[in-house]
């Protein structure tokens, strides 16, 4: 693989800024990309059909399989050079139908809570109940005396740190209570673990998401309650003993077959591959509009726009609708392994998985030199309200590629995070909460960076 | 007035960047402002009461007078140095109760349209009807032959240019069809003028806003129909003749008394004044949540935060809740004249009137030198996602001050404009469409700039 050199960037730099008075061809082309995205964009209409005709599409569900058909059909309609399915194995977990949570205090007051089983959780096997013991973080739980936790129902109540500017950082700081809470509770003999939803807002929705169990730990049920209900439970606990009753009949089934959905425009110059995508699966509540329907339609739209404008790529541009990001990332891991096994040459990957809100730039996962190169684009993209080009994390789906292709550059589209966790993994993640212009600006930004990367490397 | 010099800015520059390893006091203070805004902010709760307990508050209505009481009471509760009302005269227009619009084609098909009288429009005096003649811009109408327009109902159908990044520019390009459409139609003998709503989205809401009549022109009714209905009407017109029926009983009453609501923290150093504010009035549909409830609570919150943090300002910090921005700007004009007549010394003004969305920076109305000075803040504010510091327009309410104080610097808070015109002047401009974190980031940004301006000038 030809490594991305600063010389190449400086060359692009010249081409970017142009001579005084001469329209710069890259700037002109990027303006055309945005014109197409904003004036004739199809991302919003495509997202509507994904959300309304398919809906929530958790891995292993019939909705997930219909989403594969939806993606294949849509990509074929655009007549790209190739459209195909890549078979993969994925987990299969189902929520079931019963999902009830009550609290009761010593005076016999009762209250029903808004609850969702965590993805991957075991069921309760009927109604269970136990005294609630609260911890303000996973670390507190891990440090707790087993006697305090045994046979209790653990409540993990760490809220988002509202002082942070980046809500992904606030999420990251709390996410271990969801991911590892039931596992750690199980180690200490708890009956179940209930967490405060990982949400930036204080509202009535419970927010689900994946949890995991170590093989040597007894699996106990894990659930999330809404932030409003977490505040109520917390207030009740300050006044005395609280009993929690929980019933969930979610269960884990054997793995099943599913597919990544792939479309390509072939390169003029070589067969080196630039991968870009989002994930087609979602959780099983809401419609997966922001997570990650937005990334799916950004990706499809980027390829459509480049084709529509008659662009002839240097390298193969490969749009991937990854299956199973949410619970296991089997799609991303399999994609990377298959690429390696086939001897493909991968030089760059881009991901959109932070919602359909206002794009603000790109996080760059690569060497300092690679970061500098992308930063040379900044002045050209400022007019499109993109200003944030910094070293950072790319994305869950494309990350496994770096195991096989350590020299490749990866970019994660950076999107304003202020509203994302109001909707994330909840019934509120629906099409109506996506703004058309913000979504289409994301498609424009994604296409522009794919174009620039294809030209530069 | 001491003019704002580059020397002062460079001095601040040193203080901003600090010596290596030394915490910079300005950065530390701005971080405290944001902590207060994001963790203990009251702007969102204040906006809820303004929207839900008062509601829409067009100038001259009892709601506008109740909003004055609301503002005065709230400001007094924060125990600022002074809180007082400033009496002004304002227009009084009422929508009335009847507002109906139908179209009918040559086959007798009929359709009811979503319609709102333009603010300041005369009524129809019963049901009127006429053949529709369409123009794609005000300029086309002005150039039209009188014979083509006389006794017709003019339909002005210029849409937003979606290719633009700044939706305020798209609005600006279309706004003359609302502001001057009925006046120009009147000159040519039209019966009424109906415009395509000034909206970025294609939806079912009509969006109102002010229109004006020259004294020597016959006043004819003006109304806005939803963008969806504008598309329907446009399609019908392509197939043949369309008749439009319109009934509105809106009317103009004599001017009434109202008030700007003012709160102050007195300066330690002198009596020079820094004014900041938004407008308390709104249109009479929706709840005026983004326009400009957001600016009102940004302004109140900025003063509250500075007081809460124990800040002792150099100059007098004056928070103004302006009345009557929407139809006449009597509040802003009167405020400036009274300031001048009293011999007050005004050195700076800031305005928030672009909604409660994500703040992205400040537009600076001033000399190149003044712009450069504000730009020296950029590196300190980058961590708060503020990046846009450029020469531009300040705001309608504070603009009249520059007539009397031409050397003053003015700043308009720059806010992402992508969603603003989905809600603007329509029934959709309600509290539920405001995001708490975005609103509180706006309060933080506004307070930070007031602090920096107070320190610098």
What does this structure look like?
The structure is a homodimer of 457-residue chains. The first copy, chain A, is of the alpha/beta class. The first copy, chain A, contains 16 helices and 16 strands. Chain A has an eight-stranded mixed sheet with strand order 1-10-12-11-13-16-14-15. In chain A, strand 2 (99-105) and strand 3 form a beta hairpin. In chain A, helix 2 (25-39) runs antiparallel to helix 16 and helix 3 (43-54) packs across helix 10. Chain A is elongated. In chain A, 57% of the residues are buried. Residues 1-18 of chain A have low confidence and may be disordered. The A-B interface holds A 34-35, 38-39, 162-163, 165, 167, 200-201, 358, 360, 383-385, 387-388, 416, 418-419, 422, 435-438, 441 and B 34-35, 38-39, 162-163, 165, 167, 200-201, 358, 360, 383-385, 387-388, 416, 418-419, 422, 435-438, 441.
